[in-house]
Amino acid sequence: MIRVIIHTVCYLFLLGMPGILSAQSEATQAPNFDEHIKPIFKQHCLKCHGDDKQEADLNLQGYGSLLRGGSSGKVVEAGRSSQSVLFQAITEPDDDLRMPPNSPPIDLTKIDLIRKWIDGGLLETSASKSMVKSRDLTFNPGENVSGKPVGEPAMPVDLPLVHKPKLTRPFPVLAMDVSPFAPLAAIADQNQVRLVQTETEQELGRLDFPEGEPHVIRFSHNGAVLMVAGGRPVESGRVVLFDVVSGTRLAEVGDEIDAVLAADLSPDQRFVALGGSGRVVKVYSTVDGELQYKLTKHTEWITAITFSPDGQKLATADRAGGIHLWDANSGGILLNLGEHKEAVRALDWRGDSRLLASAGEDGRLIWWDTVDGFPAINKVNAHPPQRPPGTYGIIPNGVLAARFDSEGRLVTSGRDQTVRVWDVDGNEIKKFKLETGIPLSNAITNQRTTVIIGDSAGNLQFNKL
Description:
Blueprint: H1 2-28, H2 33-44, H3 63-68, H4 85-90, H5 108-119, E1 176-178, E2 184-189, E3 192-197, E4 202-208, E5 213-219, E6 225-232, E7 236-243, E8 249-256, E9 260-265, E10 271-276, E11 281-285, E12 291-295, E13 302-307, E14 313-318, E15 323-327, E16 333-337, E17 344-349, E18 355-360, E19 365-369, E20 374-379, E21 399-404, E22 410-414, E23 418-422, E24 428-433, E25 439-444, E26 450-455, E27 460-464
Antiparallel strand pairs: 1-2, 2-3, 3-4, 5-6, 6-7, 7-8, 9-10, 10-11, 11-12, 13-14, 14-15, 15-16, 17-18, 18-19, 19-20, 21-22, 22-23, 23-24, 25-26, 26-27
Helix pairs in contact: 2-5
């Protein structure tokens, strides 16, 4: 009797196997037009955009007609759902503007399927090839070491005595950087910058910054100069260059009427670019402090500025999500990088000057191929938040910081209280969860063994990779 039951169960299981395998196959298969997308269009779109009727000259019933688009041009862009008119229309938050009209929104699972289909390259069938061109994003760290000093790298020696300020509450770690060649980190503090030995985690000294709050800290490419930018909100802003060994002020650049929120020092140390609430990027000479040129294309506060490691390009970003790529020598516009929907919080170049990382309050983390401005890797929700019990509405998922290390890995901080490390292909390889506070800044040490995290409570953490 038992044998009969076993045979019967096995037989029934085998009968169900094709359905199980089919479901698993569909779950892992890249979406294509014929099998996955056309059924969605048939249910929601073809009444107005099919063979019988084409409003705005748009026919979604056939693959070829879909790619041709309508009277206003193409409606899908391979690899970029966020820039595709069709995807924008079906995800429009305004009920009066969203498609299909006078109907409930398309189910979120179907929306996600359409997004994956567009980002995956608009496959027509399961046998089709992606329309997104293949890119070689290989990174060779050994070929991208620039500015390495002759002899020992710069470390602080006999710094001027600076007294630690008495604070009623800890100052958040708004900015930090690590020396590219020495075990040294520079950490933002109230009206000061702390210099910390990254191997012993001991403070070596402080640099006075009476200008106000340090919002940006950057070592020069040879590690010998430290740039500090900041100021006092609605009062003044400036960029100061320090000699790392002696702590001497080498130059003071800019005379802003508000704090400097974004700045960078060019790889050859000849220029400083800065910006803030004035919505203008200004590029100054470090030799005489004279203004070289202005960039006026941004429509919101400047939130991030960075020179490419080869010194040829300058990337700038703003509070509205705009990113522009400029010729660093002439100030001419090269590319507009449109993908973020909210403030861009960080920009950073990979060592080979090809990939640019951007992180935003919209939760996106993007590796841009600056050859043509294509988002080679696009993490729509890089730091997914956990919803606390009993809470409703949108949970902030912004990415607040992003820095490359010398091996091409990227370390990011998010409002989910997590710091994540990504490999050169955009795969998450490590994460660190904070118990309290929000991570505001981070960096990987010069030995590439430790992630340093600075948070909103003023804490500094050293975590082994």
